[in-house]
Amino acid sequence: MSDAIYDDVIRTESERAEMVVDIYGCADCVRDHDFRTETNTHQPLQHTGSDSVKIRSSRVAVVCLVLLCVLLLTAVIVLCVHIYTNTTNYTQERDQLLTKINNLTEERDQLLTNITNLTEERNQIFYHISSETKSWNESRKDCTERGANLIIINNREEQVNHLKFKMLDSKTGFWIGVTDIDVEGSWKWVDGSNLTSGFWASREPNGGREDDFKWICEKNIL
């Protein structure tokens, strides 16, 4: 009986010792695991070669993208400056062209005015009435020296309306540009045209080229 109890005690003690050994063993395992975990936690992460290549590639891509954005922004700025400069130049050219157009328009209007004035002057006739008396030939010579000729009366209106008042102060008459010097009795104007009609006093026109009268010179403004 005592042997059996002793055996049980020894067995129990032995089991306790084994349990203590197991506990200490497990504790050592836990401490070793915690130490390795803590060591790994404090150590820097180490990347493989593939990860390093990926990181460098990403950095290169970012740098390229930034450079591309800078180049694009520079191009946009240059384009804006170019457009602004061209717009300014075009505006100045347009203003200059408008000024030239206005000047040309004014010159055109002035030329038209001058043409109108010249046309009116061309249609005007200047008369010179002498204050002295000469023969017909001398009278015609005086007119020729003035760049004119003895007056040619083309119609009754000219004779009555334009010349009548000029002849009122003359009681003897005026020399005019009609003559029969080539053929007696065949009257012609000094420009060579035939006398087809006239508004004369009785017995007019007649000769008497040697008589002295006042005369009227006529000059057309061309």
Automatic annotation (TrEMBL):
UniProt cross-references to SUPFAM superfamilies, sorted A to Z: C-type lectin-like (SSF56436)
Family matches, as PROSITE patterns: C_TYPE_LECTIN_2 (PS50041)
One annotated GO molecular function: signaling receptor activity
Coiled coil: 87-121
Pfam families attached to this UniProt entry: Lectin_C
A single GO BP: regulation of natural killer cell mediated cytotoxicity
Keywords assigned: Coiled coil, Disulfide bond, Membrane, Transmembrane, Transmembrane helix
Domain annotation C-type lectin: ranges: 127-217
Protein name: C-type lectin domain-containing protein
